Amino acid sequence: MIGRLNHVAIAVPDLDAAAAMYRDVLGAEVSAPVPQPEHGVTVVFVTLPNTKIELLAPLGEASPITGFLTRHAEGGIHHVCYEVDDIRVARHRLEAAGARVLGDGEPKIGAHGKPVLFLHPKDFCGTLIELEQA
Ligand code: CO
Questions:
Q1: Per-residue pLDDT of the chain in tens (134 residues, 90 and over written 9)
Q2: 79 CA distance to ligand 1 centroid (A)?
Q3: Predicted TM-score (pTM) of this structure
Q4: How many Å lie between the centroid of ligand 1 and the Cα of residue 81?
Q5: What is the number of structural domains in the chain?
Q6: Cα 31 versus chain centre, distance
Q7: What are the residues whose beta carbons fall under 8 Å from the beta carbon of 116, sequence distance 6 or more?
């Protein structure tokens, strides 16, 4: 059911420092910061030949990654995003298998303008999974 790895998201406490490290030390193609107030994050997109890395920093008071950064002060892998052909078909299959979809279960428009869902990390080897309709 899952297809391509769309991105790996890394939460970071200092977005400028993280972007500079990916650009200058790792030699990657790095975007300018993109504020996404509706998601409570500012994102830097790192484009790799076969996938993307998203560097996430908190934006605003109620950012969903603030708690994560409290537990991981230097940053860390926050979630992985897999593509699916049909997000509603995917949700039905996952719910039938007993997996928990976060929030109200309705797909939301994600960082790339496409419908996304998040799956409970306790159901998937301790990893927060984002599904994005391809
Ligand atoms: Co993501």
A1: 999 999 999 999 999 999 999 999 999 999 999 999 988 999 999 999 999 999 999 998 889 999 999 999 999 999 999 999 999 999 999 999 999 999 998 999 887 889 999 999 999 999 999 999 99
A2: 7
A3: 0.93
A4: 6
A5: 1
A6: 16
A7: 81, 87, 107, 108, 109, 110, 130, 131, 132, 133
Q: What's the gap in Å between 67 CA and the centre of ligand 1? A: 17
Q: How far is the CA of 7 from the centre of ligand 1 (A)?
A: 7
Q: Which CATH number fits the domain that encloses residue 60?
A: 3.10.180.10
User: And the tokens for 47?
Assistant: 């484009």
State which residues form the domain around 70: 5-133
130 among known catalytic residues: yes
Catalytic residue (one of 61, 95, 106, 130): 130
